[in-house]
Amino acid sequence: MNAVSRFVTAHRRWVLFAWLALAVAGGFATPKATAALTYDFSLPGQPGFETNQVIRERFGSGGDALPILLVDRQPSAERAGELVAAVEQALSGASVLSYADEQALRSADGQTGVVVVYPRAVPGPEPYAEALPALAQVAAAHQVTVTGKDALAVEGGGDQGADVLIETIFGGAGALIVLLLVFGSALALLPLLIAAGSILTTFLLVWALTGVTDISFIVQFLLALIGLGVAIDYALLIVTRWREELGRGADPAEAMHRSMATAGRSVFFSGVTVAISLAALIALPVPFLRSVGFTGLLIPVISVLAALTLLPALLLTIGRRLDWPHRRTTDPDSRLWRRIGTTVVRHRWWAVIAATMVLLALAAPVLSIRLGQPTNASLASTGGAAGTAITQLDSSGIGAGLSTPIDILTSDPDGTRALVADRPGVAAAVVWPTGADGEGLIRAWTTADTSTGPGVDAAADVRVAAEAAGARVGGAPAGDADFVAAVYGNAWWVIGLIVVVTTLLLVRALGSIVLPVKALVLNVLSLGAAYGITVWIWQDGHGTELLFDQRAAGAITTWVPIAVFAFLFGLSMDYEVFLLSRIREEHDDGHPTDAATVRGLARTGRLVTSAALILFLAFISLAQVPTTEVKILATALALGIIIDATIVRGVLAPVLVAALGDANWWTLRRRPSQPLSAPAVVSRTK
Length: 686
Hints:
Blueprint: H1 2-10, H2 12-35, H3 47-59, E1 68-72, H4 77-90, E2 95-97, E3 113-118, H5 131-142, E4 145-147, H6 149-155, H7 164-183, H8 189-210, H9 219-247, H10 252-279, H11 287-322, H12 335-346, H13 348-363, H14 376-380, H15 385-394, E5 406-410, H16 413-421, E6 426-431, E7 440-446, H17 453-468, E8 472-475, H18 476-488, H19 491-510, H20 514-539, H21 544-548, H22 560-588, H23 593-622, H24 628-660, H25 678-685
Antiparallel strand pairs: 1-3, 1-4, 2-3, 5-7, 5-8, 6-7
Helix pairs in contact: 1-10, 1-11, 2-8, 2-11, 3-18, 4-5, 7-9, 7-23, 8-9, 8-11, 9-10, 9-11, 9-23, 10-11, 10-19, 10-22, 12-13, 12-23, 12-24, 13-20, 13-24, 19-20, 19-22, 20-22, 20-24, 22-23, 22-24, 23-24
C-alpha cells in the first residue's frame, strides 16, 4: 500500500488521465457490450439438454422451447378446424395439435379446449418473438386466448423494460442520499465517481470478453448494480479513514498515506476475497454461470483498482475543496454503535444465544427448499388475459403441466405412450404427429404444475420409467433436473476451494487463525438465513403479494442459490474484514480485547451500516426488473446484506471476538503485537 500511495502521489495527473480515458472508452463500449450478450442456458453433456437439442433440430421446436397454448372457451370440432387452419397459415412450419384430434386436450365438462402450437423457434432471448404477435391476431379473430410460459412472460413484462441504465440511476440516487448523510459535504460525490469509473471500465472489459466467449445477459444487471455497491463501499471506507486522519492533524497527503496503509489494505483483501468467491463460478460446467463468474471476478478487481488509484488521486487533487460544507465530524466513532458494542460485550453469552437463535429461525425454511421455475399461478398473478387463461386451464382438469410438457424420443411410440400415461400424477401422454422418419415423439404432461412438489415428483417418475425402456427424455422438467445435478452435484468441491483460499487470505490479512474460522462459520449462518427468508417469501408465499403484487413462485429458480452464494459470501466478507481489521488495529494499539471490540465496532458500525444500506438500495433497484427470477435473486441479496450487516456483523461477530478473548490472536507463528501501519501509531502518540 505504501508503494501504491507513493506512485499515485507522484503521478496523480497521469492516473486521473488514464481513468478518464478508460471511462470514455467504457461509455463507448457499454452499448456494444450489452448488444453482444447472449441468452444461452445450455448444459453441454447433460442428457436432458442433449435430447432437447435433438428435438429442436429434428422438429424445429419443442424440447426447451415450450408450447404456446390457445385456450378456447367455446370448443367445437368446427372451431378447432378453423383455428388450426388459421395458425398453419399464419405460421409456416408450426407443429399444431388441437382438442378435436386429441381428447386429452378437452376438459371433461366440455367447456375448455386447447390447441397446442409449437412455432419454429428462432435464436435469441425470445424464441417466439415473431410467432406470438401473429398468434395474437389469430386468437383475436377466432375469440380464443393465447397463453403459456412465453406469453405469460411477455404479458408480465419479461425482459422488456429492464433498462440497466434506469436501474443504475435509481440505485445511484439512493446511494447519493446515504452518502450525503454520512459525509454532510460534497465528498459524497467521490464514491459515485469511483463507481462510475469502475462500472464503465468493467463494461469495456466485458465487451472484449464477448469476442472470446459467450457472456450472459444477466451480467449487465449484476455488473451495474453490484458494481455500484461494491465500488461505493470501498471508496466509503477509504474516504472515511482519510477524513479521520485529517481530523487528527495530518495534511491531505499524509492522511492519504495513512488511509491507504489501513483502510486501503482492508479494501485490497476484501476485494480479493469477493473476486475469489465469484471466480469459483467459472469452475462449474454451466456456460452461463461461467460467464457470471468471469464478470463477477472483474467487478471487485476493477473496483479495488479504482479505490486504490483513482480515489487517492482525486483526494489529493480536489478532496479538501469537496469537503464543504463540513457538517459532519471527522471522528468515525458512533455513540449509538458504541452503546450497542458495550451492551452486547457486557452480556455476550445472552447476545450470542439470542442472535444465533434468530439466525437459525430465519434459516429454518431452507430445509424445504424446492428448485425449479415459477409456477403458472405466480406468473398469472401479474394480471392480463394470458394469466386468466392459464388459471382457467389449470383448473379445467386438462393438466397444469401442459405448459411444460415432458418430451420423449423413442423407437416404440405406442408402447412408451402406454407406459408413461399410466404413471401416477400424469394427466395424459400423446404420440405427437411429426411426419418425420426415425424415432417417434411422445409428449406427456402432469396433473400438477411441474414447479410444485407433486409435479416435480411425477415428471421425475416419468423420466425414470421412459429411460428404463430405452427412450431419451427432454423438455423443461428434464432440463431443470439436469441443471440441479450439474451445478449442485459439483458445488461441494467448488465451495471447499473457496473456503480454503479465503481462509488463507484472511489468516494473512488478520494475523490470526481463529478469526478467519469464526468468519467462515458466521458466513454459513448468514447465508442460511438469507436462503431461508427467501424460501419463506418466494416459495411459501409470505409477503410476495404485498411486496411485489405477485403470488408466490412456488419454487426457487434453479440458478439463484449458487449465484447468491457467490455474491453474498464475498460481500459478507467485506464487512467482516472491515470490522475485524479495525478490532485488530485497536488491539495492536494496546487495548484489551473487550475494549478493542467496542472501539472497533464503534468506529466501523456507521460505515458498515451505510455500506449495507447502499447495497440494499442497489438490490432493491435490481428487484424492479420485471422477471420473476431476477426478483428472487434481488430479494435474497438485499435481505442477506441487511441480515449480515445487522445481526451478524453488528452483534454476533463482535461478541464472539469478546468471548474468545486472547484466543482470537493465536497464530501458527509468533507475531509481535504491532499496529497495522506505523503512520497510524504516530497519529495516536503525538
